[in-house]
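Structure first, sequence second, as always.
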């Protein structure tokens, strides 16, 4: 997937989330199905995730190469990344649950701040994606807590899918 397509899918997946949120009641941020995350927890998780990606992309490239190495395989397609993530989630339900156990429901004020932060972080990621060279997107890698080391292009595609994944959970359960 080229940079323009990645930027487009990032925008599309985040806009789908924001469109869904606009049609929800004001109290929906603190409510959720029994034993499941609230809407606020989903948004807090997405903000935390995208901020980590943006932070990593702010480091000097030589430091990323030194710390994590270089890719030793071809970049996977968007569909391959999403399928692999779904498979990993199915095989590691307990690990995923424990990784996210401390996500707190934000206050109403914090929820609105998180929405604004998510929009800003999405735009930052789009901008950073545009500025990175294709070679660096494909060869430099970052660790993902569930998927292992991934080329940066894949991490960015995963970020778009991650937003879609949580949007679908919200649509199905809330």
């Amino acid at each position: 997937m080229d940079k323009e397509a990645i930027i487009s899918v990032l925008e599309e997946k985040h806009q789908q989330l924001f469109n869904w949120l606009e049609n929800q009641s004001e109290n929906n941020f603190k409510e959720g199905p029994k034993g499941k995350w609230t809407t606020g927890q989903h948004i807090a998780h997405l903000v935390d995730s995208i901020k980590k990606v943006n932070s990593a992309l702010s480091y000097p490239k030589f430091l990323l190469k030194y710390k994590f190495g270089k890719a030793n395989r071809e970049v996977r397609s968007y569909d391959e990344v999403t399928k692999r993530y779904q498979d990993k989630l199915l095989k590691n339900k307990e690990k995923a649950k424990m990784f996210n156990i401390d996500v707190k429901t934000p206050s109403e004020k914090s929820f609105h701040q998180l929405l604004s932060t998510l929009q800003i972080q999405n735009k930052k990621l789009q901008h950073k994606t545009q500025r990175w060279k294709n070679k660096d997107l494909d060869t430099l890698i970052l660790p993902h807590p569930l998927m292992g080391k991934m080329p940066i292009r894949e991490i960015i595609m995963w970020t778009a899918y991650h937003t879609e994944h949580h949007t679908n959970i919200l649509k199905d359960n809330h």
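Margin note: The first strand starts at residue 141 and ends at 144.
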